[in-house]
Design a protein that fits this description.
It is built from 6 helices and 12 strands. It has 264 residues and is α+β, with helices and mostly antiparallel strands. The strands form 3 sheets. Strands 4, 5, 8, 9, 10, 11 and 12 form a 7-stranded antiparallel beta sheet that branches. Strands 1-3-2 form a 3-stranded antiparallel beta sheet. It is globular, with a radius of gyration of 19 Å. The relative contact order is 0.17.
Length: 264
């Protein structure tokens, strides 16, 4: 079963699955993970994958461990990615530790960290004009190769640092941006601007057949983009480069297909 998860801190995901699917798939009620195979960070939206019986859960879990799932995300990050760096792979090693008082997890780039790999491609540039000041943003699509905690968020933060961008990270990221930056971002969005929009996985009982799930950006994130001005020339260049490099295997002919209610 693939379901779309909205961005929310409450209720806990497994409780939500019990309430949403338990009546239809009673097996979930007795399972320690409520059948959950593929999950998302708090405040990240998109499809989640749930095994509805022992056989499908085992099949999907094994597929996940063998890296047979295709997971593609969209994120709005601060700054304009320079043209010569608008696509590529991120290989920063990641180390995850408990935060103070054990209330959550925090990930950093560290030489002794675990290998992590993310493919990325800039697809659109945006501008927020405030008087004489211009704040720039880049909409990025990302293919998650490994699945470390907060991998995309920390990889984009480190990329921004390496590129010398003023603000390092994804819009609205309460965990990895400075508090003042998060407060400024609240004028655009009240959540982390990170969304899983494509999920492909081998069908239980027929590995040769791929199930493909696609979830456009939710309305709240499309609304955030409406508050910004599209940089048409930069976006056109990103598109041209993306068609040449093919860093991410799944084609995206036009980024607007991820935002069906926008009028750009």
């Amino acid at each position: 079963v693939a379901m779309e998860k909205q961005s929310s801190r409450h209720p806990p995901l497994q409780s939500w699955l019990f309430d949403s699917l338990g009546f239809r798939y009673p097996w979930l009620l007795g399972h320690y993970r409520a059948g959950l195979v593929h999950r998302l960070d708090v405040q990240t939206s998109g499809p989640i994958l749930v095994g509805s019986c022992t056989g499908s859960f085992t099949h999907l879990r094994n597929s996940l461990h063998r890296h047979e799932l295709y997971k593609e995300y969209l994120a709005l990050m601060h700054g304009a990615i320079p043209l010569k760096h608008c696509s590529g792979e991120l290989l920063y090693p990641l180390k995850t530790e408990r935060e103070n008082k054990g209330k959550g997890w925090h990930t950093v780039v560290h030489p002794s960290g675990e290998d992590a790999k993310t493919m990325y491609e800039a697809v659109a540039g945006f501008i927020n004009v405030k008087g004489r000041r211009k704040q720039r943003y880049t909409l990025v699509r990302l293919q998650l190769i490994t699945g470390k905690t907060h991998q995309i968020r920390v990889h984009l933060k480190e990329l921004a640092s390496d590129l010398g961008l003023k603000v390092h990270g994804i819009v609205g990221d309460y965990k990895y941006l400075k508090a003042a930056e998060v407060r400024t971002d609240e004028k655009l969005t009240k959540r982390v601007f990170l969304h899983c929009w494509r999920l492909h996985f081998p069908a239980p009982g027929d590995k040769a057949r791929k199930c493909k799930v696609q979830c456009p950006l939710p309305d709240e994130l499309q609304s955030s983009l409406r508050k910004l001005q599209l940089d048409e020339s930069l976006t056109a260049y990103y598109r041209k480069r993306g068609q040449k490099t093919n860093v991410i295997p799944e084609a995206l002919d036009d980024w607007r297909t991820t935002c069906p209610s926008l009028s750009y």
